[in-house]
Design a protein that fits this description.
single chain, alpha/beta, five-stranded mixed β-sheet, two-stranded antiparallel sheet, 9 strands, about 20% strand, globular
């Protein structure tokens, strides 16, 4: 092969590489960081299934998946906790970097003794919290959780309540919320973005 021909081939390969890199660049451009949702969240401390008063700050360095509900909830809460479990499973070994947390909105019935087996049924890493009605209102206020007691003469009482899952970063800041329309894949992808920060 002549020297001129070899140089021509090398130039064509180089040009092809440059063109390919230009078209591939949008595919490998890093995503912008998730925003900090400053209107949601804040520090709190409640008695927990760890057997002591537990502060949110104790989970610094890990992501937190947080949900509010109650153990007597017939459908919404079990569905949400199952979704949290599937998201943790989807992370594989990275699930160790995520703390699932459940705060009851029904402290009158949800003792820690009742909550411990309830949440651990969904995942052994779950920690549940139950405070006084006043403390519960304070914590739910931080995250703008809607809940309202509904009395039923035959069945006792329940709650109409929101079902969002809150995603907190390693500094305890809310960086995302998952509605009931979010897929497990979307939840896993979002958590991986935070884990990569």
């Amino acid at each position: 092969m002549s020297r001129a021909r070899a140089l021509l081939i090398a130039a064509l390969v180089l040009a092809a590489g440059i063109v390919a890199a230009r078209f591939a660049a949008p595919l490998i451009t890093p995503q912008p960081p998730l925003p900090v949702l400053d209107a949601l969240g804040g520090e709190f401390s409640l008695p927990s299934t760890l057997g002591r008063e537990t502060a949110l700050a104790e989970f610094r360095g890990r992501l937190v998946l947080l949900n509010f509900g109650f153990a007597s909830c017939p459908d919404v809460c079990p569905t949400v906790l199952s979704r949290m479990r599937e998201a943790l499973r989807g992370l594989g070994k990275d699930a160790d970097a995520v703390q699932p947390l459940f705060v009851t909105i029904d402290p009158e019935r949800d003792t820690l003794e009742k909550l411990k087996p309830y949440v651990e049924f969904f995942h052994p890493a779950f920690v549940a919290m139950s405070g006084t009605p006043e403390a519960t209102r304070a914590v739910t206020g931080l995250f703008k959780v809607y809940y309202e007691r509904e009395d039923n003469p035959q069945l006792g009482y329940g709650f109409a309540h929101s079902d969002k899952i809150y995603l907190l970063d390693r500094q305890g800041r809310v960086r995302g919320t998952f509605a009931n329309t979010a897929t497990t894949g979307e939840m896993v992808a979002t958590m991986r973005r935070l884990l990569a920060e």
